[in-house]
Amino acid sequence: MKMVDFLIRLRSVLYTDKVSSYIFSLFMRLVLFVSIISIMVYKGAKILEYKTIKPFFTTIEIFTISVIIIEFVINYTTFIAVLIKKREFSFKAFLNQFINTLFLANIVAMIPFYILSYPYMLFVVLARLLQFGRFSKKIQELVNVIKSSFYELTWFFAIFAFFLFASSISIYIAESPYNPAFRSLFNAVWWSIVTATTVGYGDIVPITQTGKIIASFLMIFGIISIAMLTSIITSAFTRRIIESKLNKEDIMQKKINDLINHYIICGFGKITSLVAQQLQSNNQDFVIIEKDKDKANDAIDHGYLAINADAADETVL
């Protein structure tokens, strides 16, 4: 159990504690940023045939991969330690952990870029960009804003995809007998996407009257769609800004009053912060009651529902 307790403390230091977790995330972002820049420079250097600098980039890559692997091992071993401590193993808990830590991106980010040819090298860059976002609080804030509009965005993209599919089939039927550019269904889909997004490359154009009517409707739909998407995202950001300007305690109290069947965590320390992290990963509602105001604010800064009160007071419970 000593090893389990050590791993739990390590997880608290790296991922929960306000100061040390910030330093750790800053270090990870710096390593990932340098590795991404080095890949881009290395690609340009290869074009210019600067082969003498390859060992330098190889050293950076080995260091980066080592850091990613160590973080990966620490993340999952400490997560398992928390489950052992709580005696709570479930498929849902592991699935949430895989999603929250971008498991596949982690694996791809471990691949040395120099063993891949140019197009596949971009997958490593993308994976490391995703990992960079995982350690960036601002990017996480953006993701949370998008998550808050998940329902609206799901409906929007479902309707958008339906109209794209319908317009692709319609333009294919109307144009393919007369227009060589639409002999392929792929070209019809490409044209629909370009038209609906109002890009309008002009590489493929309808020539029949029916095709032009379909194009006109799709153009109008594209303009309306962009306006709707902008409205959804803007509304989400506006809600976030308003919440940040309002009194934190009032917002917190309103959210707490709306909760049903939730857990109550007494205090916010190293162990209880890990419990809160685990409950959050399992999408379970909870409230933290902390007597110390600084610790209560720390819990709020972590995105948890928390109130500054004495848990021993029955009126609070």
From TrEMBL:
Query: Per the record's keyword annotation, is Transport included, yes or no?
Result: yes
Residue ranges of coiled coil: none
Q: Matching Gene3D superfamilies, A to Z? A: 1.10.287.70, NAD(P)-binding Rossmann-like Domain
Q: Which residues form the RCK N-terminal domain?
A: 260-317
Subcellular localization: Membrane
Give GO MF terms, alphabetically: voltage-gated potassium channel activity
Tell me the Pfam families matching this sequence: Ion_trans, TrkA_N
Q: What is this protein called?
A: BK channel
- Organism classification: Bacteria, Pseudomonadati, Campylobacterota, Desulfurellia, Desulfurellales
